[in-house]
Amino acid sequence: MFPTVLARPVVTSATRREFLALLGAAGLLTACSSGPADGPAAPATRTVTHPLGTAEVPVAPTRVLALDRRGALPHLLALGVTPVGALTAESIIGTPFPALVAEQARDVTVVPTGGGADDVNLEAVAALEPDLLIGWTGGIEEQYAALSGIAPTVAVDVDFTDAAASLRAIAAAMGREAEADAVISAFDERRAARLAELGDIGAVSIVLGIGGQQFRVYQPTGSSVARWLAEAGARIVPDVSSISGEPYGDGEFVLISPESLGQVTGDTIVVMTNTGPAGEAAVAELEGSPLWPTLPAVQARRVVRINSQESVGSYGFQGYDAVLDTLVDQWTGLGPR
To answer: β-pairing, 253-256 with 246-248?
Structure first.
């Protein structure tokens, strides 16, 4: 069964008040109408504080929408919640939802974008009559007021080195903190057991090609996989203090050119790859660079490839499970270092 795809309506430049008035006239704001004074009592709510303000969230929401492509859908599914709709990720990964959760999400309606990959089509959202909207802070900030006019809206910050942060924020909005604790604890136990299969890990370099002849060399503070390996005893090289290139943030990674690839000296190289043609082209740039065949790990055939979106938590803990298995399964199949 394929997910239902809502047709993309034409979005005008009406003000928020005009837009909501139009939706009300069309009967699309049923979920957030107060109803007649003598009607049934409003459902119980609780106040949820989030990065864009506060929201009065139903104690037991039943029509939840995941309005981002950075883990909200997988996180909700992991918490035992099947949303009625989720923002499409078609332009990013080529399919509406990640393959890892496609079966679980078979009854989830695909919410089209309104333009850019993070823009929400407001009419499509309202048509689903949600009682709670959840989305990445940076993706919904400009539309927050309009979204809040449709249903209570909770913004969630994302930490690309630790999916637990957004999972816990979504769990808090849903009142499912215990379920989040169980998901995180189960993964941490499984991670420790699987990485123990690697034995003495040694020195590891973690690289991502981003296109344009540019490569990121990650540190434990910038990559969940680098952090996992470091916690399991690996030495992540090169160290940010010794590598020449353009550092990012507080040393999460360093951006280097092909001429600097000789600094990638790990006994094992973990290559992160993005989904789609652009991601594969970036890997081809990396592996086609003149210095690539000279690297010690390449010569020893100790190179592992993992999915970048899985490793940064965009596919939730389902993605973490998948990337962990890929990492360990490939690693244990390598020759001795």
So the answer is: antiparallel
Q: Is 276 left (phi over 0), alpha (psi -120 to 50) or beta?
A: left
CA distance 204 to 195: 14
Which of these ranges, 10-19, 230-239, 291-300, has the smallest mean pLDDT?
10-19
Q: Alpha-carbon dihedral of residues 68, 137, 274, 258, nearest 10 degrees? A: 160
**Residue range 68-92, pLDDT digits in tens:** 988 999 999 999 999 999 999 888 8
CB 31 within 8 Å of CB 150: yes
Q: Which residues pair with 56 in a beta bridge?
A: 47
Residue 265's pLDDT band (cuts 50, 70, 90) = very high
CA distances from 269 to 19, 287, 313 (A): 52, 12, 20
Which pLDDT tens digit goes with each residue over 2-55? 454 444 333 333 444 444 444 444 444 443 334 444 556 656 999 999 999 999
Amino acid at 303: V
3-class state of residue 152 by DSSP: coil
Question: For the chain, how long is the longest CA-to-CA vector?
Answer: 78
Which among 108, 99, 101, 106 is positioned nearest to 130, based on CA atoms? 108
Helix, coil or strand: residue 319: helix
How crowded is the C-beta side of 149, counted as CA atoms within 13 Å? 16
Residue found under tokens 């009682």: 131
Both tokens of 35, joined, read 């109803």
If you average pLDDT over every residue of the chain, what do you get? Answer: 88
Residue ranges and CATH numbers for the domains of the chain are 16-179 (3.40.50.1980), 193-332 (3.40.50.1980)
For residue 262, the number of C-alpha atoms closer than 13 Å in the C-beta half-sphere is: 4
Quick: pLDDT tens for 138-195.
999 999 999 999 999 999 999 999 999 999 999 999 999 999 999 999 999 999 999 9
